[in-house]
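tool=predict chain=A
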Amino acid sequence: MPGKIVDIKLNVGDAVSNGTVVMVLEAMKMENQIIAESDGKIASIAVAKGDMVNPGDELFSIA
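tool=predict ok
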């Protein structure tokens, strides 16, 4: 479902492990944590705080 990015917890280059919260998305007045699904480093962040996103949009990538 569409939502709004309300917080970005990490920056490009930060190390992450599986399960780390990367950002928070608000949809239907509920906050949902968006987590890393693998270990690595944040390679890119494709959104900014306040951006509206839709299902299937790339939010970030891990290298």
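Residues 10 and 22 are 6 Å apart (CA to CA). The longest strand covers residues 21-27.
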